[in-house]
Amino acid sequence: MEGMTESLESVQVTSRKLMSPHLRVWLVLLSLSLILVDIHAQLVALALFSALSIHASRYYFRLLFAPAVFILFSTAVILLTIEGNEIASLYFFKITDKSLEVAGSTLLRCFSALSAFCYLILTTTLPEFVNSLRLKGFLREIMLLGYRAIQVLMEEAENLRNSAESRLGFRGVRRWIRTTALIGYMIFLRSLWRLEKFEMAKDSRCYSGIFPSRNVEHEGKIYAILIFMAISSGLLV
Prior knowledge:
This protein is mainly alpha-helical. It has helices at 8-14, 21-35, 39-56, 60-81, 97-123, 126-132, 137-166, 173-204, 221-232; strands at 86-90, 93-96.
């Protein structure tokens, strides 16, 4: 993850957690159903999930940055393209009462949902997410194997990029093109080698096609209940 000194998985493992993976996953999924329909629930969810994410990890705002930029640009397009009673204008750009209303509601809904997803991303690994949804069989195994393969690919790419940068391999256009081509070639070879080692490790542990998973007690039930009740209370306002 760009801008992070740790891998996403290490951030997820070391983040501070108030509740078990099962409760985190279902709290976010159930909260999203309220976030999509009620503005007061959106305000409460934005405040609570932002606070939970900041408590969980110092990388919250870095994770939030890229999607936030996309949301802001998209909201700006909405603000300038919907017809209605004109409020302000500059040259051929104009803001209407309808566009302001739609842009505001869209912005709040997006950031509320994004804060919930960020909390889930910062605290829950893919295996924990898959186990919480009770996925079984081929779908579960292919998701976990694909996840591991992507991890290997990203780790090798990061190591090779750091190695090239330390040798000034990206200085100048010609050197940048040559270095990028070499990195792409080396990523392919080293990823195959790492995946072969992964297969050997699975075989040595008598892997039978089913990934083992830990049984985690449903800790933090009181936190999950209080948070969901707080978000639900927005519907009563």
